[in-house]
Specification:
This protein has 152 residues and is of the alpha+beta class. The protein has helices spanning 22-29, 85-92, 102-115, 121-127, 139-150; strands at 2-7, 10-14, 48-51, 54-57, 70-72. The structure holds FE2/S2 (inorganic) cluster (2 copies).
Amino acid sequence: MVQNLTVNGDRRSSAADPITPLVDVLREDFHLTGAKPVCREGFCGACMVLLDGAPILSCLVPAALAEDCEILTVEGLATDGGLTPIQSALEACDAVQCGMCFPGMVVTLTHLLTAKPGATRDDIRAALTGNICRCTGYERIVEAALIAVAAK
Ligand code: FES
Ligand code: FES
């Protein structure tokens, strides 16, 4: 049993074994499929979510460690049906291809732009080193993040 998770503002619990990876509880019990269990080894960043505001790899975190914490997944970022500035910029720049990496990218960039609103190109590239994309070459993603910075 895993109790007292706050997921995108809602209090949740799960009958899952406490050592179940958080990404699996999010996907299978709460039907939040944004975070992707791609490598399950901490290399790709596709499972990134925010735990009490900090980016974590949810494939490596047992769900019990998230008890009494605030979890924010990519599904919880947009409010009132509107995209966030980074989501809008990524869409406008046509930065996504297959999309497998993108929920993690969006979570990482959301954290960066909150922690460092004036992030530079180097800051953005450094932040994305933990998010592997096999499709895009990254340049449009970085350009989108710079547009989101400039829009603040
Ligand atoms: S699935 Fe978690 S880092 Fe790849
Ligand atoms: S868009 Fe395909 S892996 Fe990034």
